[in-house]
Design brief:
Length: 375
C-alpha cells in the first residue's frame, strides 16, 4: 500500500512535469535537480539533468544556469568542458547569482586574476562566505587588486563569522601574530583557532600546538603542544609532523627518541616539506656508519630540498660538495638532477650548466684533483 507521503511526492513530481511541459523554467530546473541528485525513485542521470537544466537555463532561469555550470564544471558524462561551465556561470553571474559569481571567479583565477577578484567582490557583497574568504586572500597578497591588509582583515572576519573554516584559521593566525594590521590578541586568536580545529583544520591544530609551546593564550605546556601536534599530523599537516620530530629530538613533552623523531621527519619529507628533507639529509650524511640509508638517498633528499629554493639546503649542497655521492648525484649549485653534465676534468661531479660550474669551482677544485687521481 502506498503511503500518504509517497502519494504526495508522486503527485508533486506529476505536477512538476506538467508545469515543465508548459514551459515553466522553475519546474524544469527542479526536475533537473531530481535527476542530478537521484532523488526518490528518479535514478541519477547527469545527461538527463543537463537536458532539463538547459531547457530552464535557455529561458533565462539564473538558478538553472548556475546548476548547469556546476554540472559541466564537475566534468560529467555530458562531454562538456570547463569552457561551457564558464559560459553558464557567467550568464547566471550577470543576473546576480552569488554562487555563480564565485564559481566564475574560481574558473578565472589562473587566467585573469583581476576579473576573478571583481566577481569575488560582487559575490562577497551579497554575503557569499567562500567568496569573502577568497577576496580576503587576494587583498592580503595583492593578487588582481591593490594590497590592502585592513580590507583583507575585514573580509576575513566576515568569512570566519559565516563559518568558513580556513578563514577562521587565518583570522586566528593573524590575531596570534599581530598581522594584517590587527592588534595581537592571544585569547581571541585561540577562540578562532579552536573553532577551525573543531571543523577539522590541521593548520589550526598545529597553531594551537605552537600556542601551547610558547605559552601564548595558554599556560605553557610541551605535553599539550605535542597533543595538538599529533592531532594536526593525523589530519595531514607536514609542519606538525616536523614539530613532533623536533619534540622527540629534544624530549619536550614526549620521551626523547631519535628514531621516533626520524620517523616523523620522514613523514614530513614525504609530504614535500623542505626543512624536513634537509634535516634528514644532514642526519644521514653525518651518520653513514650508523645504519643510515645509502649516502645516495641522503643526496637525493638534499637535492629535493634545494630544488624548492630552501636556502639552508642550497648552502648544505656547497658544504657537502666534497661527498662523492652528492657531487655525482645532483648539481651542487642548485640541486638539479636532470640534464646534468659531468665535470670535464674529474668526470665525477655533475653540474646543470656553465653558471653553476663556475660558481662552484672554488669549492669543487680540491675534490676535482683528488677524484682525477682516483681518490
Amino acid at each position: 500500500m502506498v503511503s500518504a507521503k509517497e502519494r504526495a511526492r508522486r503527485e508533486e513530481v506529476a505536477t512538476l512535469r506538467e508545469a515543465a511541459a508548459r514551459g515553466d523554467a522553475r519546474a524544469q530546473c527542479r526536475i533537473g535537480e531530481m535527476y542530478d541528485r537521484g532523488e526518490g525513485d528518479v535514478r541519477q542521470d547527469e545527461t538527463e539533468a543537463a537536458r532539463w537544466y538547459r531547457r530552464a537555463a535557455e529561458l533565462g532561469d539564473a538558478e538553472a544556469q548556475n546548476l548547469l555550470g556546476d554540472l559541466f564544471g564537475r566534468a560529467v558524462s555530458v562531454e562538456q568542458g570547463d569552457g561551457e561551465a564558464s559560459v553558464w556561470w557567467r550568464k547566471a553571474a550577470l543576473q546576480g547569482c552569488a554562487r555563480a559569481q564565485h564559481s566564475l571567479a574560481c574558473s578565472l583565477a589562473d587566467s585573469d586574476t583581476e576579473e576573478a577578484v571583481a566577481w569575488w567582490r560582487r559575490a562577497a557583497a551579497q554575503g557569499h562566505a567562500p567568496a569573502q574568504h577568497r577576496l580576503a586572500l587576494c587583498l592580503q597578497a595583492g593578487l588582481g587588486t591593490a594590497r590592502d591588509e585592513a580590507e583583507a582583515a575585514a573580509w576575513l572576519q566576515r568569512a570566519a563569522e559565516h563559518g568558513v573554516r580556513d578563514a577562521q584559521c587565518a583570522l586566528g593566525g593573524a590575531l596570534a601574530d599581530g598581522s594584517l594590521g590587527l592588534k595581537r590578541d592571544d585569547a581571541l586568536a585561540i577562540r578562532w583557532l579552536q573553532r577551525a580545529a573543531k571543523l577539522g583544520s590541521a593548520e589550526a591544530m598545529r597553531r594551537l600546538g605552537v600556542c601551547c609551546e610558547r605559552g601564548a593564550g595558554f599556560a605553557r605546556s610541551d605535553a599539550n603542544a605535542v597533543r595538538w601536534f599529533r592531532k594536526a599530523a593525523k589530519a595531514g599537516s607536514a609542519e606538525a609532523m616536523c614539530a613532533l620530530g623536533s619534540a622527540c629530538m629534544r624530549g619536550a613533552g614526549v620521551a626523547q627518541d631519535a628514531l621516533e623523531a626520524e620517523r616523523w621527519y620522514r613523514a614530513a619529507a614525504a609530504e614535500g616539506l623542505p626543512h624536513a628533507q634537509h634535516w634528514l639529509a644532514l642526519r644521514w650524511l653525518g651518520d653513514a656508519a650508523g645504519g643510515a640509508p645509502d649516502p645516495t638517498a641522503a643526496a637525493s633528499m638534499l637535492a629535493q630540498a634545494a630544488q624548492s629554493g630552501y636556502e639552508l639546503a642550497l648552502a648544505s649542497l656547497a658544504e657537502y660538495a666534497h661527498v662523492r655521492e652528492v657531487a655525482s648525484f645532483c648539481c651542487t649549485g642548485c640541486g638539479a638532477t636532470k640534464r646534468l653534465h659531468a665535470c670535464s676534468e674529474c668526470e665525477t661531479a655533475r653540474f646543470c650548466g656553465k653558471e653553476c660550474r663556475q660558481r662552484m669551482w672554488p669549492t669543487h677544485k680540491m675534490c676535482c684533483k683528488g677524484w682525477q687521481r682516483g681518490a
